[in-house]
């Protein structure tokens, strides 16, 4: 692949836009909280120990990027609840992958609590890049390709 080809691949990559939407420490911790049942400003503030102005800013950005939505709390209409949108729910594998990576390469110890399959009560598998047929792929088995050159099958 030529240098210009690499440049084109990088400029058309969605990663920078994704990082702009959520790629900040507090945003990921807020998302972890929502995935674990937190829904209200005060819950985030007390659980995460985040400054109110930063929390307000990050929640606003997550709503603006349609990752979270604000709605009146059914239990107390004076309160606002933050809920994941379908777009936000699809970030779950990203958070799990980052956590697993951190366990292996940063903290060096398994996290607690452990994320398990509700039915089997066994820990979830390692997140992996998979082929269309489900095989786990290593970096050496991957290559970037222009979308126009993809096989039609």
Descriptive account of the structure:
The structure is a single chain. The protein is mostly helical. It has helices spanning 3-11, 15-22, 25-35, 41-48, 52-64, 86-89, 92-107, and strands spanning 68-72, 80-84. A two-stranded antiparallel sheet has the order 1-2. It is globular. The relative contact order is 0.09. The model has no long low-confidence stretch (mean pLDDT 89).
Shape annotation: globular
Helix content: 40-55%
CATH class: Mainly Alpha
Structural class: mainly alpha
Largest sheet: 2 strands, antiparallel
Instruction: Determine Rg (CA atoms, Å).
Output: 19 Å
- End-to-end Cα distance, whole Å, is 24 Å
- Secondary-structure element string: HHHHHEEHH
Q: What is the name of the CATH architecture?
A: Orthogonal Bundle
Summarize model confidence as the mean pLDDT.
89
Fold-level CATH name: Arc Repressor Mutant, subunit A
Q: How many domains comprise the coordinates?
A: 1
Strand order of the largest sheet: 1-2
Low-confidence stretches: none
Topology, number of strands: 2
The number of distinct helices, counting runs of at least 4 residues, comes to: 7
Q: Name the CATH superfamily assignment.
A: Winged helix-like DNA-binding domain superfamily/Winged helix DNA-binding domain
Q: What's the SSE blueprint?
A:
Blueprint: H1 3-11, H2 15-22, H3 25-35, H4 41-48, H5 52-64, E1 68-72, E2 80-84, H6 86-89, H7 92-107
Antiparallel strand pairs: 1-2
């Amino acid at each position: 692949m030529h240098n210009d080809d690499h440049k084109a691949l990088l400029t058309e990559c969605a990663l920078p836009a994704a990082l702009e939407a959520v790629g900040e420490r507090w945003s990921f911790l807020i998302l972890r909280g929502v995935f674990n049942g937190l829904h209200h400003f005060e819950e985030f503030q007390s659980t995460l120990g985040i400054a109110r102005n930063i929390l307000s800013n990050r929640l606003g950005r997550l709503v603006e990027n349609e990752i979270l939505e604000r709605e009146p709390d059914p239990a107390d209409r004076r309160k606002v609840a933050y809920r994941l949108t379908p777009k936000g729910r699809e970030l779950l594998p990203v958070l799990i992958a980052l956590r697993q990576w951190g366990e292996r390469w940063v903290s060096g110890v398994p996290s607690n609590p452990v994320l398990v399959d509700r039915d089997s009560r066994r820990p979830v598998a390692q997140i992996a890049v998979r082929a269309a047929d489900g095989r786990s792929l290593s970096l050496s088995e991957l290559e970037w390709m222009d979308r126009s050159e993809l096989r039609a099958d």
